[in-house]
Amino acid sequence: MREPEQQEILEALRAGRAALGDALAGVDEAMAARTPPAGGWSILGCVEHMAVTEEYLLGRLRAGSMSDRSHHNPEREAKIADRALNRVRRIESPQEAWPSGRYGRLREALSFFDSVRAQTVRFVEEFEGDPRCWLTDHPLAASPVNYYEMLSMIALHPVRHAKQIMDIRAGLAAHGPQG
User: Are residues 149 and 77 in contact, defined by beta-carbon separation less than 8 angstroms?
Assistant: First the structure.
């Protein structure tokens, strides 16, 4: 992978984790476990979902294959980034990535997320070749995605859910400590 591209992806991965950290600042275990008044996932559920999803997507990267040509599509890359960051458009997660109570505590879910994120960073650091010449599948994409697209999705996923966590926090705060 070319150095500027690698650094861009690594910075996006760091920024995604930082956004998640900011959203979780001050969240205690009781708040993390509370279901939002309007329904949906708890903060703990969001973190579990991110951890499970990243583990799965990293597995898809490890199972990908090299193509005989580049699949560079700047318009598609921009569309992926826009969809990842725009929470106005709902994206339904595959049921396999829904929270299932795998972790009883926020710190456990976050620790698992961080361990998988470290593996993703290592994958990027050790990857050789053009990420746009490598293809894999994504459960929400009708056609194969290249590694650059997949890594973009992985990096932006916590940013999207950090926004969701802030919305959950606001809803919980509006309904008091016991909601």
Answer: yes
Tokens read off for 85? 């960051």
For helices 147-174 and 43-62, angle between their N-to-C axes, nearest 10 degrees: 180
* pLDDT at residue number 86: 85
Which residues are CB-contacts of 178 (< 8 A; sequence separation ≥ 6)? Answer: none
**132-154 average pLDDT score:** 95
Cβ–Cβ under 8 Å, residues 150 and 138 = yes
Domain architecture of the chain: domains with CATH? 3-174 (1.20.120.450)
**Residue in this structure with the two tokens 């969701």, named with its chain if needed:** 164
What does the pLDDT look like over 14-59, one tens digit per residue?
A: 999 999 999 999 999 999 999 998 889 999 999 999 999 999 999 9
Q: What is the pLDDT of residue 137?
A: 95
The mean pLDDT value of the chain amounts to 94
DSSP code for 96: G
* SS3 at position 134: strand
Q: Where are the beta strands (DSSP E) in the chain?
A: 65-66, 134-136, 145-146
List the 134-136 sheet strands across, edge first.
65-66, 134-136, 145-146
| Other CB atoms within 10 A of residue 37 CB | 13
